[in-house]
C-alpha cells in the first residue's frame, strides 16, 4: 500500500506534526526549536556539538514522547493551548491534519520515527536589522540591542534587560547548517528566511541566493519564503528581485514568496515599527506586485498595531483588486513580551479585532485563527500588573525615541488609566 503523503500518524488531543516537521533555527543565539511558536532548545556548545544532531536533543525527544502519549509538553506549546482552551482553532489542529506536514521519512514508511528531515526549515541568521519594532527584542533586532546598550534595560521581560549578545558559535554553526543543507535540501518543501532583516544582512543573503542558484543541487521542489520589512533601497531591491525571478524561470526552485511584514497603517505603524518609511515600503511593494514573485503579507497583532490593522487589510484588498494578483494575508498574536499580549488588555481589543475579522473570508484558516484569538481575548480579564508594565515600558521608550504613545493611542490611554485608577 502506498503510504506517501498520508497525514501525520499520531492524531490525539496533544500531538502536533510541527514537532517533527518544522525546524526553526536561531543561529545568532545558537538555539533551535521544532515549531515556530514554542521556546527554543540550546545547542551544546562543546567542541563536538554538530547542527545535524538536532533530532536527538534530549528535551525534544521528551516533548515528542509526551505528545505520542496524548500529553502536552510541560514547558512549551502554550501558544496553541490557550487558543484551544478558549474554544478557538489552533495551528496545531490545522497543520496536524494536513498531508503536506508529514515528514518525508514518516510519510514514506508510515512509521513514526525521531530521525526526520523537517518539511520546513526556518532560519534566523543574525539579528542585524534596520528597524526597532516596539514588540521586538535584541535577539531579532540589532537596533534594539544597540538602543539597550546605550540607554540601559528597557524591561525585565523578553530579553529587554540587556543580557542578549550574538553567540560566539555563530560562524561555526552557520557553516554546519549550509553543509547539512547540501545533503538534505532536496527533501524539504519550504525554506524560510527571517532576521533581523534578511535584505540588510548582505553576507547571509548572498549565501542564500548563491545556494539556490547552484544548478548542481536539486532544489526544484523547494518553496522559499522570505520575511522582509521591505526597507531596502528600491534600485537594489529590483536587482535582487531580478535574480529571484531568474531562479523561478529556470526551474532552480519551485517558488519564492516574499512575506511583507507590516502590521498596521499610518502613525500607528510608524510608532510600532520604529524606523519604517511607509512611502518606501509601498514603492518596493509595487515592485513585487509587478514581478512574478508570490506575495504574502504578515501582521503581528498587539495593542499598538490592532487599531489600524483593518485599514492595512483594506489596503491589501485594494492592491489585490488593482493588480489582479492574489495576496495571502496572515496574522499572529503577541505572547511575548507579556505586557503587549492582547489578552492582558481585555475587551478594549475586541472592537478593532472584529473590524479586521469582518474583512477576512469566513471560509479560510485565517478567519478561524482570528476568531480563535477573539475568543482568547474575550475570555481573559485585564491584567493590571501587565498594563502598568506597558505604561512604564512605553513611557521609557518614548523618552529614548522622542515619541508620545498617548497622543497616537488616546483611547488606549484612557482605557488603561480608568482600569488602573479603579
Describe this entry's structure for a reader.
The chain has 422 residues and is α/β, with parallel strands linked by helices. Helix content is 41%, strand content 13%. It has helices at 18-21, 58-68, 78-85, 91-95, 104-109, 142-151, 170-184, 202-213, 234-249, 267-272, 278-289, 309-323, 350-357, 365-378, 384-401, 405-408, 410-420; strands at 22-26, 31-34, 41-42, 120-124, 132-133, 190-194, 223-228, 255-261, 273-274, 294-301, 327-333. The strands form two sheets. The protein has a nine-stranded mixed beta sheet with strand order 3-2-1-4-6-7-8-10-11. The protein has a two-stranded antiparallel sheet with strand order 5-9. A hairpin with a 6-residue loop joins β2 (31-34) and β3. The chain is globular. The protein starts with 17 loop residues before the first helix and ends with a helix. The model has no long low-confidence stretch (mean pLDDT 90).
Q: Major sheet: size, sense and barrel closure?
A: 9 strands, mixed
Radius of gyration: 21 Å
Strand order of the largest sheet: 3-2-1-4-6-7-8-10-11
**Total helical elements:** 17
Please give a quick description of this structure.
The chain has 422 residues and is α/β, with parallel strands linked by helices.
Summary keywords:
two-stranded antiparallel ribbon, 41% helix, 422 residues, nine-stranded mixed sheet, alpha/beta
Provide the fold topology.
Blueprint: H1 18-21, E1 22-26, E2 31-34, E3 41-42, H2 58-68, H3 78-85, H4 91-95, H5 104-109, E4 120-124, E5 132-133, H6 142-151, H7 170-184, E6 190-194, H8 202-213, E7 223-228, H9 234-249, E8 255-261, H10 267-272, E9 273-274, H11 278-289, E10 294-301, H12 309-323, E11 327-333, H13 350-357, H14 365-378, H15 384-401, H16 405-408, H17 410-420
Parallel strand pairs: 1-4, 4-6, 6-7, 7-8, 8-10, 10-11
Antiparallel strand pairs: 1-2, 2-3, 5-9
Helix pairs in contact: 3-14, 9-11, 12-13, 13-14
